[in-house]
Structures are given as C-alpha cells and as structure tokens.
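Schema walk-through. Below, the input block comes first and the output block second. Nothing else is stored per chain. Lengths vary across the set, and this one has 235 residues.
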Amino acid sequence: MNESISSMIVPGVLWALVVFSVLSWGLLLIKSAQYLRLKTQNKQFAKAFWAAPDLLTAAEHSSQYPGSLARIANSGFEAMAVDETPRNTQQLAHTINRSDRLERNLRQQIQKERRALEAGQAILASIGSTAPFIGLFGTVWGIMEALQSIGASGSASLETVAGPIGHALIATGVGIAVAVPAVLIYNFFLRRLKLAVADMDDFAHDFDALAQRSAFSINRQAIASKHSQAVREAS
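--- output ---
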C-alpha cells in the first residue's frame, strides 16, 4: 500500500504542474479577452460621453453603454440625482453634501471595477510562487526513491545512479517551466490593471471637475427620470 502511494507521488506532482500550466494559459486567454473588450467598450463610451451636448444626454449614455467608465459615470449621476432634502432624521445618506457623496460613489465604483479586473491574478501569483517548490518536492521524493532502490540493488555504478536521479530532476524542470510563464503573465496583467485603474481615476477626476464646474446646477429630477427610462429601455 505504502509502495503504491509512493510510486504515485512523482506522477501526481507532474500532473498537478500540468494542471497549473493549463490554468495559466487559460487565464491568459480569458484576461486578454476581458481587457480587450473593456478597452473597446470604454473607448466607445468616452467618445459618446464627451460628445454629448449636455449632462442629461451624458447621463442617458451612461445607462446605455457597457464598460467600466460607463458604470463609473452612472454611479456619479446617481449621486447627483439624489434629493438632498431629508425626509426624516434617519436618512443619514442625505446628510452628506453633494461633493462628498459624488466622490464617495466614484471611489467605490472604481474599487468594484478594480476587484473585477483583479479576478484570477491571485491564481497566477500562487502558481508562479509555488510551482518550483512543488516540482522540487517531486524531485526530492524521486531521488529518495531512487537511492532506496539503488541501496536495495547493491549496485552504485554511474548508470544505475544517473538514470533514476535524472528522471527525478524532470519534476523540478517542469515546475520552473510552469512558474516562469505564470509570473510573466501575472506581471503583464498587473501592468494592464494599473493602467486601467489610472484611466478610471482620470475619468472620475474629470467627471468630478465637470460636476463642480456646473455647481451641481442640473435638474436632478430630470436626470433621475431620464436615467430610469434609459435603464428600462436597456433591460
């Protein structure tokens, strides 16, 4: 029983590394498609948003277009459309002034978008950091088995020693081969994440400046009505 389990450890390590490799390359394809789709959506929305003649039209675009920038703008318009007149003393959200409420909504939406873009990167980081050690574990176990078998056979020739130990070293090589692409893919998408968040921060800053410049002197009831209508049409 113990011998059968022991003989399955090295193949099990190799199969685990193969699974890790498939995960890494699969995440590369999935994340690449995610960022490409997001870039296209944000480009289309930004063009429509800044070409809008007024904030009411821009609010309608924010509900009709997909993408992170559209969702950020949507959260900003929701903050601007809130009636500041408190109906009772328990509505604490109404006691926050418009500028702080807008900034909070924009910041919270950026954090949501960031978490969505970070999905899968923890897996890549884990694979990149653990794959070499998993491969090394398979190598150590394989060398231990090889030495036990050499000791049992009583032969210490070069051919007897080199074959099993060389076979055991394959696990370390596979572990490194799996870890290097995972680290490179992780760093690539980490850079893309920073750029995407920077773009969202820039848009949020511009949106806040636009709201401040208008002194929030827009018809909030009209924005709320138009926003609700756009949501119904989109659904």
